[in-house]
Structures are given as C-alpha cells and as structure tokens.
Design brief:
Chain B: The chain crosses the membrane at residues 6-27, 48-71, 118-137. The complex is a heterodimer of chains A (1228) and B (139). Chain A is α+β, with helices and mostly antiparallel strands. In chain A, 32% of the residues lie in helices and 15% in strands. Among the domains of chain A are: 482-501 and 974-1078 and 1209-1227, Four Helix Bundle (Hemerythrin (Met), subunit A) (Up-down Bundle); 502-631 and 881-973, Sandwich (Immunoglobulin-like), CATH 2.60.40.1670; 639-788 and 800-876, Rossmann fold (3-Layer(aba) Sandwich); 1079-1204, Severin (3-Layer(aba) Sandwich). In chain A, helix 3 (75-87) packs antiparallel against helix 5 and helix 33 (975-992) runs parallel beside helix 35. Chain B is 79% helix and 0% strand. The chains are: A alpha+beta (1228), B mainly alpha (139). The interface between A and B is medium-sized, with 28 and 20 residues.
Chain lengths: 1228, 139
C-alpha cells in the first residue's frame, strides 16, 4: 500500500486520541455566522434612501430587527451575493417613478438592470437616483403570459420571473440577493411557454389575445428587444408586467419590474421586488409577494426559450390608474413607515417560534362548531399554475366589473359545476363578490400530452370537461368513471394514452386552484364521509406526495408575516374562507383568525384590502422565505462528504474512476453557496482521511487503523471549503482512482467508517455519500451473508427481508438528529445484505442506489448508468435540515408514513436532506365523521434550508370533496395512487410479517374492493367480473405488482434485488413508481408523426401504448419497453430491414450485436423519430435510463419477457387467469 | 413463610405498578410531542427487561409456593412479556422502536397494553394484599 499515492502525503496515526494526536483546535464551524450584520443594515439603509418620502429610520429599524436577534444571517450569504451578481443571476427591481415606465422604457435600460444587481449588493452608499433609472426602465412589460393569452385583462399585475432551472433538476433554488431580504425570488417557467413549445396553437392564441387596451406594436417590440437583450446579456429572461387591468383600478400600473434569471448558472435566482410607487426602492416591509403563474411541466423545454409574444402582450398604459396607484402606494407606504412592525401576528409567530422545527404539536384545539359553508366563490382568480393555462390572474379589485373582452364564463358554469359547496357570503364586500372567474383550465398533470390536449377553450366548460374526460380515465364526470366494466369480457382495458390522475369533483374555481396531482395525490378523490363508508368500499385511503419535485414555476413569497392559523398552524391557502376583509377561517380546524395588517396589502395588484387576492390565496403551491423564527440555528452550509470503499473488491470493480470523473466534471455544479464544504474518506480495513486544508501543497492522507474506537485525526482540514481548496480537491480526485490499484486488503470496515463520517459531519449536518461494494466485514456493523442461493426461487418463504442488526438504524437516527443524511451507493456483485445496509439511508432521509454486478469495463451499461445517475445526483437540488409536516382537516388522521425519513412526532417527518426525487406516502383514517363539511383539505409544509443557506417553506394544499354514497367513492378512485399506496403497505407487510402475507393482502385488496362494488350494483348478472371504470385497471396493476421483483415468488430473484425493489417502492414518487410496476410498451418500427407533439422544435411521435403481453409482439416489429430505469428495445427476427438499417445502422438482423446500448445517430427520418421519442422519454425522468437492445433469440430476452405481466409464467397467473381467480374468490 | 412470599409479591407488584404508570406517562408524552420518539423508546426499552424479570419472578414464586390460581392468572401476562421480547426483529432497537412507533397505530397499541397491565397489576396488588393479611392472621 505504501507505494501508492505518490502525490499524497500520508501519515499513519496509530495513537488513540491523546497527546500523540495532531493538535486540535476546534475549527470555527459555520464560519461567518453572525458576521454580516452590518452589511445587511447597510443594505437596508440603502434601501431607505428613497426619495425622501420614506422615513428611513423605521425601515432601518425593521431591517435590523428582522435580521438581528438570535440568528444573524450567515455572512457568506452576502459574499455570495456579490459574486452572484456578476453572474447576472439576480435582478432586483422595484417600482420606479410612476409615469414613464410603461412605455417609455428604453430598451437600453435592461442591461442596466444587470448592473443594478451588483449595485445593490456592493454599494450601500449608492445614491438612490441611480437606481431609479435602472429600475424604472426595464420594468414594464407584461406578465403572465398565460393570463394574457386567455384574454383576461385583469391578470398579472405583477412581475413574473422565470428561471430556467426549472427543468433541470440540478438546479438549486435561487436565492435572492442576500443584500436585500425583501426581494422575491422565484424560479419559474411559464408553463405556457412549455405548452407553446409543443403545440402550435399556443402561440397563436397568445397573439390573439385581445386586451382592452393592448399596447401597440411598438412597445411590444421594445419588450422583445429588452428581453432579447437580457437574454443575451444574461442568458436570462426578464420581463415583468404592468397592470393590465382596465383603467380604474390599476394600481399596478406603477409597478415596474424586471426579472432576470440566470439560465445558465444553477444558482440562477430571480429576484423581484415590487414596490409601491411611493415607496420607491423600499420594498414594502411586510408584504409583497410575487406570484408566478405558469404550468409546471416536468418535461418543459429549457427555460431560455420563451415565446416572445407572451411577454410582450398585455401591457397597457393608462394614466388614470397611475394616480390611483400612487395614492394607494402612498397609503401603504405610510402604513409601512409609520408602523415598523405593527403586525400583531408577527409577534405571535415569534413567540410560537418554529413549531415546525421544535416539533411542538400545536394541534387544533379550537373549532367552531358551526361549519359555515366556505365561500369559495370569493376566492378565485389566479389559478395554480400547474395547469396549463398558467394564469395568475387577479381580477381587478374594483367594484366596477372589468371590461373583460371575453364574457366571463364564470357564474353559470361554476354554479352548474359546483356541487353543494360554495355559497357566497351575502355580506361580502363588493370586491369579493365580483371577482371575475378567470380562466378555466383543467387540473391535469402536466406533460406534453396534457398540453396538447389542452385547448384553451375557456368559455366552454362543457368542452373542457369533455376534454378532461378524454384525457383521464376516471375523471370527474361520474357516468364514465362509474360505468360498470365487465373485466373478463373487456379485452383491452389498458388505454392507448397514458393514464392521468382523476380530477377531484370540485367546482371550477377550486379545481383550478387545486394542487397539481404531480405533487399531491390522494387515493380517493372523493373522501368518504365516515370510516364505515370507507370500510365498506374496501379501498385504501392515503396520500402520495412528491413535495420537493422540480417545479417549472413556483410563487415565492417573502413577507414578514407568514399567515398561519393560530390554533392548528395551517398556512393560509386558497381554500380558506374570508368571512370579511379582516377575518379568515381556517379550512383545517375551522378557527376564525384575523387577517394581519400586512396581509391586507396586495403587492401584486398594489391594492389594499384584498387579502383574498394575495398570492398565498391564489396558489395551492407556494414557497415562503422563512424568517429566523423558523430556524433553530443559523442555516447550515451545504456540506458533502464522500465515503469510499477502496478494498480490493472495490478497486477491481473500478467505480472510483467513474466517480472521480463525475465529481471533477460536476464540482462547480454542486449546489451550494460560497460556504460549501466537501470532504473525502476512504476505507478498507482502516479508515483514511484526507486533509485538504488550504495552504497544503498536496492532499494529506491520514490513516486511522483503530477501528474499534474511531476518532478524527485532525479537527480541521477534513471538510474544506470547496472554493478555497478546489485545487487540492482536484489533485485528490485525479489521484484517487490509481492510489489503491495494488491493494490486497479485502476487508471492509464500513461501520467504523460511518461512525467517523458521523463525527465529522455532526457539527454541521449535510450529506454523506457512501460507496460500498461488499459485505462489511470488520468492526461495528459487520454483517454475515444471509442469503441462501437455493432459496432464490422459492415459492414459500422469503427470509431476511429485514435488517440483521440495529447498528445501521441507530447510526441513521444519530445522523438524522445531527441533520446528516446518508446516501448509499451499493455496487456489488455479490450479496451485500442491502436489507441491513439500507437502514442507514432509510431513516436518515437518504437515498439508495444499487448497481448489481457493477464493473466498469465488463459491464459498461452499469457504468454508464452510474455515471448518469451521479450527474443527476451531484447536481440536483438539495434541501438541508428539513422537516415536513402534513396536516389534514379535523376528523382525518394519519397513521402510517412511507418513505425515507424519521417520524419525529405524530405528524412531523424529520428529513435531514430532501431531494427532488423523493416521494412519500401517508395512510389516513377517518376518526370523526365528516358529515358537517363538504370539503377536506390536506396541507404539507416542507421547511428546509436551501443550498444557498436560505430557510424556505414549501407548502402544498390539496382540497377534495366529501361524499356520502358508496358510488361516489368508487367514482373518485385514483387507481394509480391506490396501487402505489398498496405497494408501500405490502412492503411493510412483507418485512414485518412475510412475503406471502403481503401477496395475499394484495390479492385481497382487489377481491374485497371488487366484491364490495359488485354488491352495490346487484342488478347486474354475475356473469363476469364487474368493476367500475375507475377501477378497471386495478386488477391489472395488482397483478403487475405481484410480478414485480419485490413481490414475485417462483422466479429466481436475488435477495438484494428484491430488497432494492422494495426500497424503491418506498421512496419513489408515484410517476416513477408506476413505470416500475407497469412498464409502457410501444411499437417503434412504424413511428409516424400522427398525433406527435412538438417539444423544443423537435417532433416527438406518440405511439399508442400496448398492453404488456407477448401477443402484441410480432416478429416483424421492434418494440420499446419503458420500465422507468431501463429501456428495452426488442427486435423480432423478422424485423423490417429498413428499420434495422435506418435506425440501428446495421445491414440486417443477424449483424446486430447482442449488446447494444445506444442508438446511432443516423440521418434518416425513422432514426430521428426514434431518437427524439427516446430522448423525450428520457427527459421526463430524473435518472437517465439505460437502453438495452434485446434481440429475439438472445438470452437477455428473459429480462424483457419478465415484464410482460399479462402473460402467464411458470409461477404466476396470466391476466385472464388472475381475473378468474379473483372472481372465484369473490363468489366464495 | 406464606406471609413472606406475599410481602415480597406485594412489593414486586408495587414496582410493576409504578413501571406501568411510567410507561403510560412516557407514551403519552410521546403522543403529545413532549419528547421525541428516540428518547422515549430508549427510556422505555431500558425497563422492558426489568419488567419481564419482575413479573416472571412473582409467577415462579407463586408456582413454587403452590398458589395455582394466582400462578395461572399471572401466566398469560408473563408469557406475553417474554414472547414480546423474544419476537423483536433483529433489526429493531428493542420492543419499542423509534422508527416504527408512529406507524400502524403502534403507539396506541403500546398504550393500550400498558393500561391493561396497570389494571392487571392493581388487581394483583389487592389480591396479594388480601392474601398477605390472611397469611399474617393465620400465622
């Protein structure tokens, strides 16, 4: 061993910690907390140097108040900001002087905006006027494109920003320039854009927008120019919107804004800070928030590409409004300046500090017994984005009806659609009542298809619902989802288009406010009124969450007061009801709360007294920038530690090369700010630390051989600042793959290495990535092989699904307590007892990756997969020291959670790290009858520290109707969610009881629910198996689940594979899990452009889905199977030679190699189509799948055929047999 | 002699009653979020073995001293205690596992169990008291 590591100095430390050890001087860990005080103050002072109008002192005071106190903001933040501004990542704008901005903004000013960013941060002393110039100019253009496109004038009075990162996972959330706490940040991408990218009709519609007083061509050109300039300058988009609203009430007018986003830097934040005209640069101390409408689309096009039209639309000058706006502004301004912290609830918040964190359950104690019907009619307006018509519309506040160019579709339709809920309050203020209903946009999962099918016919609700019906199998129109289907007779239950989530049967207003099904789904979209009814339906009730999903757009709200219910601490959301202007009623506990003063001011419309139009109330997914009340300690920096196995086995597999290469490539893209720290440890039978202290000429290797009592050889230098020690890190990464090439050490002391990692990380918390290639064989946590290979295909008992020792669980809990997550990469060719090892990630909120039989040269496809996964892993967004709390309406209770986390108290999940690929599931029960309410709501609040050191809260709220009849319950089943929840429950069951129990439970779930349904429709002759249309896929999915690696019996399955599949079921979000359970099969040798969608100028063919049966395969065809993490292309031996030639690049079938993992880039139409289809599929998921080409006669075809779940296998039923089996069980 | 047996049983029973009350208090603390699952479970797991031993000793003592009825009364509870301890999966951190205690209503069932035991021990307490007095009088 000694001969290695030429460039690395080594020290062997045999001494236990003691005098012999290296000197210890405790490092200042979170360097720089608290340092920055004065900078902030300076900044604020700077803000307050407004044009004299503002009283500087109050503001100042406020700022300092805000930031001082217990937690001073991390110093580095500031430093970061200044650098960030160079990147052009941030923009700050504020309402400029009222008049000119709208039209007069010379295009040239935009570039100025870029410099403003730096001005803001760097120069506190900068005289105000200079800002004005900058700000006023770029400000004005339009807003929310979607709203505009729909022809609603009232929309978007705020600025909107886009950040390109949305599409890409890697992106970390942008943080606003540290210098100005008040700016709003968002990352967003207007969905519309995405839509238009794919569908020709969108742009057209945008253009067609008829605004009452739309700008002439000139201004729009200006906008375009400006935009382009910004783009070129920054590679960002910036546009903002002036109020479109018709004359009278546009306070917004003055609202100027510019937004920028850096599309190229992961950090690309966008800051927007609207300010009242009177307030000039001082963002209103409390209020303000910005909303970004738009549709999230997972597969959205890169942000940079924005249709210009949408931005250009909708600007509208009006001078009258200016004055009004000024008045309002002044008013607000006065308020703001006269009372620095007037908000009663602020103090309240403070004193209740941090219940998220502290874990104090302030559960609902109050409840007003009289359930007043919610007046949802009052709350309309902006729709949650996710929908395809991203509209943040805030109808004009003015009592006079808006001169909508298009007749408001609302009243009649919504009434029609409205179920019993939604009574208006007679006493509402005029402003509340006449809010025009905004766009009708369906609530549907995003995605290209959805876009495609989403015509903008907003006047016609009928059309809409019919399109919904076409889209989703079990969407709300009851007749369809309740239509009895005779499963044994219906041959093709599987639709040819992807199955979408059913839309809750709510009235239109609520529907479009509701949370996106991609983030939040419930197994029953109609909640049964009583537990008895639920029991009767025999269906699982639970939620499936994907809370930290990469969103294409997200309203980010900065305000001093985060408005929450006083008793249950629910965040204000679109489903609360405003009793009058001053009071709102919590929709979870029904307590009546006061509306804080600050909330009365709407920064978007710059109007006062319209709390129902605040972005929090207009969007069911929002993100708050949390104040120090939500911190128990200063936000931690991003800290990454890599713990690498370098035993003989590991070196032989050669993963180090791949890892070091990926790290070198992505070192600059690791999410974090200037405080980011990184460290490395390697281990075999000893533990090696690497000192990378700045100033060393080369990395220093410190070896600790005392694995029984692990200690850190040096107090500092092991976790180093990424930027300060970058050179050393690079040297180390280049050296690592070759350092251990001749090692003969076969033992692996994983346990002690983890203990050391824990010690290293515990002062800060962060992420530990463990790479392990074999069974740990030394020290604490050593494991024995438990797998008996002869039992792999046993149909009886599968043992050892649970952990063998509690060592890893304890370690995980310790880590979780210190905000450290452990991610496990297991690259092993033999049994490594994943069941035990996985515990280290499961309970510390880490993630698990498994690469069976990994070898970097013998198994290139695995190596490629590792490389791609690492790229995603290293660059994706990450949240630190997170907690998630799920709240639900009184009467419902959560009893079981699934996912990777530690349940710290009844409803508080402790997540040391949160990543965008983590999904969660929760089981619910109905404890009290829900007879006195017609709606239930669920809210998840995820509090986390972004990689930029900002505390943020992401809140999702889902609203669902309550029904009292069994038929309605069946009508609302979300079969995919139900199957995923069942899969989670089955995993628990197989670990706690046995695999066969779990399998029986799955079958019983089908039998029970179908027989319960059968008894409700007794008039049907029992000739076949009857299921409601909403459940017609249920048996198929359950059968697929039974044949899934996790639960199958009879087929040879390695224990680790099985356990890994179980881990994935527990931690994958629904979309990815569904592909794992039931892959999609397409025929790809005859792709046509029929029904193709357009993405980024590419035409993506949309072949129909085929059922997973060999009967669909023909020798003449080529088929693609999308299993989530793997693609298989199966080629029949009679496959069309044109396809083989044009797509695969080989002359005939025989010459196609057995192992092919890439499609060549050929310049033929069919090759292009195939590749664009594959790329499109790939882009839709975070981890890039590996492609396997399977020839008809190749031995690998069993891999492919095992996924054909509808076929009979030696050990399992075919689909038809399964149906017959279920039917027999029912008749028994 | 008999009196000594019952005096001992009485003391032991008192201890078990206190232990049950302690279990109930700790679990309800957890229910109310006053303590976190980790510390709750480590507190409780510490007392699982003493409880098991304490109860087994009384049972055996009753068997030895040929009090059949009292022995049979104690037997199910003692068996349950031992069974519960033996059946802990190898990966769990004891009878009370912090990662699972909030799942599948485990907290509630632990609570229910502790309540039942409390009732049972109170019953035993009076039984021992009565028997002790009887024994003392007979002496």
């Amino acid at each position: 061993m000694e001969e290695q590591g030429s460039c690395i100095e080594r020290k062997l430390l045999r001494a236990k910690r003691g005098p012999g050890g290296p000197a210890q001087s405790q490092m200042q860990v979170p360097s720089g907390y608290g340092l920055h005080h004065q900078n902030y103050i300076a900044a604020s002072g700077h803000y307050s140097q407004g044009p004299g109008k503002m009283a500087a002192s109050p503001l100042d005071g406020q700022c300092s108040d805000y930031y001082s106190g217990l937690y001073t903001p991390p110093a580095q933040k500031v430093a970061a900001s200044s650098t960030a501004s160079h990147e052009g990542a941030q923009q700050v704008y504020s309402g400029g002087p009222p008049a000119p901005p709208l039209l007069g903004a010379p295009p040239g000013l935009v570039p100025g905006a870029s410099s403003t960013a730096s001005l803001m941060h760097t120069s506190a002393s900068q005289p105000y006027p200079s800002f004005v110039n900058y700000y006023s100019s770029p400000a004005v253009y339009t807003a929310n494109s979607s709203a505009a496109s729909q022809g609603f004038p009232a929309t978007c009075h705020y600025s909107v920003s886009t950040v390109s990162n949305a599409v890409h996972p890697s992106v970390c959330y942008s943080s606003p320039p540290p210098g100005d706490p008040y700016t709003r940040v968002f990352t967003s991408q207007n969905a519309l854009v995405a839509g238009s990218g794919r569908e020709g009709s969108f742009p057209g519609q945008n253009a067609a927008l008829s605004h009452p007083s739309a700008l002439g061509p000139l201004p729009s050109q200006q906008h375009q120019q400006q935009q382009q300039q910004t783009l070129s300058g920054f590679n960002t988009l910036s546009w903002s919107v002036p109020g479109l609203p018709p004359a009278q009430d546009n306070l917004l007018r003055n609202h100027a804004g510019s937004v920028a986003s850096a599309s190229n830097s992961p950090a690309g934040p966008v800051a927007v800070s609207p300010a009242g005209p009177g307030m000039q640069n001082v963002p209103p101390p409390r209020p303000v928030s910005t909303v970004l409408p738009g549709a999230p689309s997972a597969r959205g096009p890169p942000a940079g590409k924005y249709p210009q039209e949408s931005a250009a639309l909708g600007t509208q000058p009006s001078e009258l409004t200016l004055q009004k706006g000024m008045q309002y502004g002044d008013y607000v301004n006065n308020q703001a300046s006269s009372a620095p912290t007037p908000l009663s609830s602020t103090s309240d918040d403070e004193e209740e500090e941090e219940d998220e964190e502290a874990g104090v359950d302030s559960s609902s104690t109050t409840s007003s017994a009289s359930p007043v019907p919610n007046s949802y009619d009052a709350l309309e307006g902006g729709s949650y984005a996710d929908m395809h018509s991203s509209s943040a519309s805030s109808p004009a506040p003015d009592p006079a009806p808006d001169p909508d160019p298009v007749p408001a579709p609302t009243a009649p339709q919504s009434v029609r659609m409205a179920k019993p809920f939604g009574h208006g309050y007679p006493t509402l203020q005029p402003g509340y009542q006449n809010a025009a209903a905004p766009l009708t946009s369906g609530v549907q999962p995003s995605g290209p298809v959805a876009f495609q099918q989403y015509p903008q016919q907003y006047p016609g609700v009928n059309q809409l619902s019919s399109s919904l019906g076409g889209l989703s199998l079990q969407s709300s129109p009851q007749p369809e989802s309740l239509r009895p289907v005779n499963l044994t007779q219906e041959k093709d239950v599987l639709p040819t288009t992807p199955v979408w989530a059913p839309v809750p049967n709510l009235n239109m207003d609520l529907k479009k406010l509701n949370c996106s099904p991609d983030s939040f789904r419930c197994t029953l979209t109609n909640i049964p009124q009583t537990q008895a009814l639920l029991n009767k339906a025999k269906l699982p009730l639970g939620l499936l969450l994907h809370p930290f999903r990469d969103l294409t757009q997200l309203p980010v709200i900065t305000s001093n007061t985060i408005v929450r219910c006083r008793s249950c601490r629910t965040y204000i959301n679109p489903f609360v009801s405003f009793i009058d202007q001053r009071r709102w009623k919590c929709n979870l506990c029904y307590r009546v709360n006061d509306v804080p003063e600050e909330f009365m001011y709407n920064p978007l419309t710059r109007s006062y007294g319209e709390p129902h139009k605040r972005p929090e109330v207009q969007n069911s997914t929002v993100e708050f920038i949390a104040s120090s009340d939500y911190m128990l300690r200063p936000p931690q920096p991003a800290v990454y530690l890599f713990v690498l196995d370098v035993s003989h086995n590991a070196v032989e597999a050669g993963y180090l090369t791949v890892l070091c290469q990926s790290l070198l490539e992505n070192l600059d893209k690791l999410p974090g700010d200037s405080r980011t720290r990184i460290g490395f440890m390697t281990f075999d039978s000893t533990i090696h630390f690497y000192s990378l202290q700045e100033g060393l000429s080369q990395p220093q290797m410190l070896i600790v051989s005392d694995i029984d009592d692990v200690f850190l050889p040096t107090p500092d230098g092991l976790l180093v600042n990424l930027y300060e020690s970058k050179e050393l890190i690079k040297v180390l990464l280049n050296a690592l793959p070759n350092m251990f090439t001749n090692t003969r050490e076969t033992h692996s002391a994983l346990g002690p290495a983890l203990q050391a990692a824990f010690k290293l990380m515990s002062p800060t918390g962060g992420r530990v990535s463990v790479f392990q290639t074999q069974l740990p064989s030394l020290g604490a946590g050593l494991l024995q092989s438990r797998e008996d290979p002869n039992q792999r295909s046993s149909t009886k008992v599968v043992q050892h699904l649970g952990p063998a020792t509690d060592f890893y669980k304890k370690l995980a809990l310790d880590c979780s307590g210190q905000q450290t997550a452990v991610d496990l990469f297991l690259l092993s060719s033999q049994y490594s007892d994943l069941a035990s090892l996985a515990c280290m990630s499961k309970y510390s909120a880490g993630c698990i990756y498994y690469y069976p039989s990994f070898h970097c040269t013998h198994n290139p496809s695995q190596a490629e997969k590792l490389q791609k996964d690492l790229k995603r892993y290293l660059t994706r967004k990450i949240g630190f020291e997170a907690v998630m709390r799920i709240r639900c309406t009184k009467g419902l209770s959560m009893h079981t959670f699934h996912g990777n986390f530690f349940v710290r108290s009844t409803d508080l999940l402790s997540l040391a790290n949160i990543n965008p690929d983590a999904g969660f599931a929760v089981q619910l029960s109905i404890e009290e009858n829900l007879t006195d309410t017609s709606l239930v709501c669920f809210q998840t609040a995820l509090l986390y520290t972004s990689s930029k050191g900002e505390r943020r809260i992401r809140v999702h709220t889902l609203c669902l109707p309550v029904v009292s009849s069994l038929a309605d319950v069946y009508a609302g089943v979300d079969v995919q969610a139900a199957v995923c929840l069942l899969a989670n429950m089955a995993v628990d069951r197989s670990v706690s009881s046995s695999l066969s129990d779990a399998r029986d439970a799955l079958v019983n779930a089908v039998v029970d629910s179908l027989s319960a349904y059968g008894s409700t429709v007794s008039n049907f002759q029992h000739s076949g198996l009857i299921a409601p249309a909403s459940l017609k896929l249920f048996p198929l999915y359950v059968l697929a689940l039974l044949k899934q690696k996790a639960f199958r019996t009879g087929t040879s399955t390695r224990l680790d594979d099985r356990v890994y599949a179980m881990c994935q079921i527990k931690s994958q979000p629904l979309v990815h899990l569904m592909k794992m359970i039931h892959p999609n099969l397409y025929r790809i040798d005859r792709l046509t452009d029929e029904g193709a969608v357009h993405v980024n100028d590419r035409v993506v063919p949309q072949p129909p889905l085929l059922k997973l049966s060999a009967e669909k395969l023909t020798r003449e065809g080529a088929f693609l199977m999308d299993c989530g993490s793997v693609f298989y292309i199966w080629i029949g031996n009679g496959c069309d030679s044109h396809f083989i030639e044009d797509v695969l690049g080989y002359p005939n079938f025989a010459s196609v190699p057995q192992k092919m993992t890439h499609l060549p880039e050929l310049d033929t139409l069919s090759s292009e189509r195939t590749r664009s289809f594959l790329t499109w599929l790939r882009d839709s998921r975070p981890l890039s799948p590996v492609l396997h080409l399977v020839k008809d006669e190749s031995p690998a075809k069993t891999e492919f055929f095992q996924h054909l779940v509808e076929d009979r296998t030696e050990a399992a039923f075919s689909y038809y047999e399964f149906l017959v089996h279920v039917q027999q069980q029912i008749c028994k | 002699m008999e009196a000594v047996v019952f005096i001992f049983s009485l003391l032991d029973c008192c201890a078990l009653i206190f232990l049950s009350v302690y279990f109930i208090i700790t679990l309800s603390d957890l229910e109310c979020d006053y303590i976190n699952a980790r510390s709750c479970c480590s507190k409780l797991n510490k007392w699982v073995i003493p409880e098991m031993i304490g109860h087994s000793v009384v049972s055996v003592l009753m068997l030895v001293s040929l009090h059949w009825f009292i022995f049979l009364l104690n037997l199910p509870v003692a068996t349950w205690n031992i069974y519960r301890f033996i059946m802990v999966p190898s990966g769990n951190m004891g009878v009370f596992d912090p990662t699972e205690i909030h799942n599948r209503g485990q907290l509630k069932s632990h609570m229910k169990e502790a309540m039942i035991k409390l009732g049972f021990h109170l019953l035993c307490f009076f039984m021992y008291l009565y028997s002790m007095i009887l024994a003392l009088i007979n002496d």
